[in-house]
Structure formats: structure tokens, C-alpha cells
Amino acid sequence: MTATSAPATRLGPSPDDLNAPSLVHRPGRWIDNWNPENQDQWENGGKLIASRNLKWSIFAEFLGFIVWQLWSIVVVSLPAAGFTFSTAEIFWLISMPSLVGATLRFPYTFLVPKFGGRNWTIISAGLLLIPSIALGISVGNPDTPFGVMLFVAALAGFGGGNFASSMSNITFFYPQSQKGYALGLNAAGGNVGAAVAQLLVPIIITLGAIGTLNITLAGFFWVPFILLAMWGAWKYMDNLSSAKADFAGSVAALKEPHLWILAVLYIGTFGSFIGFASVFPKLIADQFPEYSTFQVASASLSLAFIGALVGSLARPFGGRLADRFGGASVTVAAFGVMAIGALAVTVVLPLGNFWAFLGSFVLIFVATGIGNGSTYRMIPSVFSARSGVADAHVNSGDVNTQRKTAAALGLISAIGAYGGFIIPQVLGFSKTTTGDYTNAIYGFALAYVVMMAVTAFVYLRRGSSVAGQRI
Hints:
Blueprint: H1 15-19, E1 24-26, E2 30-32, H2 39-77, H3 87-115, H4 117-127, H5 129-138, H6 146-155, H7 157-173, H8 176-207, H9 217-220, H10 223-236, E3 239-240, H11 247-254, H12 257-287, E4 294-296, E5 299-301, H13 305-325, H14 327-348, H15 354-386, H16 399-416, H17 419-434, H18 438-459
Parallel strand pairs: 2-3
Antiparallel strand pairs: 1-2, 4-5
Helix pairs in contact: 2-3, 2-7, 2-8, 2-10, 2-12, 3-4, 3-6, 3-7, 3-12, 3-16, 3-17, 4-7, 4-10, 5-6, 7-8, 8-13, 11-16, 12-13, 12-15, 12-16, 12-17, 13-14, 13-15, 14-15, 14-18, 15-16, 17-18
């Protein structure tokens, strides 16, 4: 978000910058008087501090997404490890981490101001040890009851909650003019973790077993990396005393009807991304078992990671397109492509052509990634437009509007993550009741068309509450 008119170019710090209190470093890596909008402070050490915190935040969030998505790839190997769960039970194991992760995003948003960004990163990264170790133990015994396995899968939700606290923390470190860039890097670094989990886990559990299968490594392998993230946060990150929880802003945002409209749209974009990413390995294993894994030397490789990877990489492009053309227009196009991709899947499934199936889903994943970026970009524009500013696309509005916008970004990201639970559950229901996934995918295509229409009607139609604004 930027102001309508750029400030005059300064050759040096302003008198206000020079008279501002200097940074105070206290024990426990607490920093007082942090103000990234102070140009003198920013250029004389503040930028380096923010960059250092961003790097370790990205690494911790990256591991959070890996842990969050471990069960999406582990379930494919459960039959070979001796487990005999039903289709419905398998889909519960896939979707439970998303349900818990989405729910945890609400409290996680407010824990950074309470504990400090550095301290909470140490704690939240440390919590990832629990689902990683528990997974390694539970999958090592084929007699582990389903209820225990479901509880362990729920623990993986800790990884999904990390996104909210990580984004909340980084927003305090950067000036308004650079928050989009910093938060974009932070989000992309986390999303790529889903692809890395699906790429490396099949390799790890076969290479580590030297020719057989050692599924316990799917959990234990990440323990040293989690410990490294905890050490890095302890050693290099900082707590900001200026970071304050904004409960009033959250309450005000919840009263805005457009928050709920945008949340539904974000379920359609981000929810589809994380939902299809988590279920994609299972879909490939069911429909094209001969393509589920490829042998490369003594290691197994799954192509399921391609979906999460292209979706993650497409997200920044969605934001850039939204900057240029407006988020609503790009979101309408994204939903249209998602609907086309879903219909293409229903066409190619009966043909039994894996590469056409993969291509159709790649199209969906690319569109979800672009839609993630464009829908998220719509949020500040909508809230600014509702406050009555002249050009909501570039004007962030007054302080109260900015507070509501910041709260809405966190709340909508949490609500959108529930799509990661909905999509596997709908697919599982379709499979158990009809024997295939076709009805569910038709339903998704219809939902995307409806969301496309809602976006156009609410944000592009002449006569809407935001008419005349580029949303």
C-alpha cells in the first residue's frame, strides 16, 4: 500500500528523525524505540536488523510448512509399511493437520506481541519437534490405532499456525513501503516447504532404509533442522517492545461484511492450493499407481511436489499482476482458469493419461497461486475503498483503516486455510460414496464459477459499494 503522493526527496535525515529516540538494546535481545519509518534509524542499522530477522523467520516458517504437509505424503506409504486404514480414514489423516493449523492461526496472530517475536519463534519452532518425533514413533508400528494416528496428524497443525505468527512478527520490522516485499518473501518461503516435503520424504524414507522402506525417517529427519531454527532464532532474532496486539482492530475488521466475502474468496484460492497440495500424492497413488513414485538409483521420487511448487512460485506473480491491473480482475481470471482446470481433470480421468492429468492439475495449481496473490492484494484496497479514500488501490487510508486492514489480513489468512480441510474431505466423501473423485471435482468447478461471479458482482460491477475504485 502506498500513499497517493510521494514525499519530497530528502538528501539526509529530517529533524524529526534526528530528534527521535535511539535504539536501545536490552538483555534477552529486546529492542526499544524501534521505528522503521524513521529513515535515519532504518539506514543506520535498522535495515540489517530487519533483514536478519526475516531470514530466520523464513527458515522457521519453511520448516513449519514441511511439518504441516508431512502427512500428505506419508499416507501414500502407509500400506507398504503394513497399515490397513480405510479410504475415509486416510483422508482424515490428510485433512486433520489443515483443520488444526487453520484454527491455530487465530491465537498465533496475537502471541508475537505477548512473548516477543524472537521468543515466540523459538517456542513455535520447538513445538514442531512434537509432531515430527510423534510421527516417527507412530508410523514405526503398524499396530498403532487409528485414533492415535489421527491425534499425531492433528499435532502437525502446529506447522500451519506458524504462518500467522511469522507474518505478524515480520510486519513490525519493515516500513510500510517495504512490507509487501518482505511479507511476500516470508509467505513464499513457507509455501515452498509444502513442495520440499513432498519431494524429499519419498527419497528420505527409501535412501535412509538402504533399499527398503524406513517410514519413521519422515518425521525424525527434520529434528536437527528444527533445532537449528531454534538456535538461529535464539542467536540472531530480536524482540520488539513496540509490537502491540491490536484486538480492537480485529473486532472492527470482523464487523466489516467484506471481510467475510474476501475470506470465502481466499478459501477458494489459498484453500484450494493447500487442499490440493495435501491430497495430490493420494490422488496420483489412487488413479495412476504406476506413476506414484519413480526409482532414481536406490531412491524413490514422487512427482506430486510439482503442484505445490508451481503454486508457490506463481503467488508473487499474482500480486504483481494485481498491482498492475487490480486484484479483482486478476482474481476473476484465476477462478475462471481454476474452473477450466477442474473440468479438464474430469475429462482426462477416464482417458487414463497421467501426463494430461498432471498438466490439468498444474493448471489449477498455477491459477491458485496467482489467485492467492491477487486476492490478498484485494484486501487493503477493499478496506481503503470502504473508508472513502480517493484511490483505494494506492492509498492505504487513515490509521484506523490501516489497523483494520492489518487485522483483516491475519484473519482472512486463517479462515482461508480451512480450505485445506474441506477439499480432502469432499474428495474422500466422493471416493467412498461413488467410487471415484469426479463428482467432487465437478463440485469444485461449480464453486469456482460461483466465486468468479461473486468477485465480479461485488468488486467490478457498476453500482457496487466500491464502484469507481480499482480494487
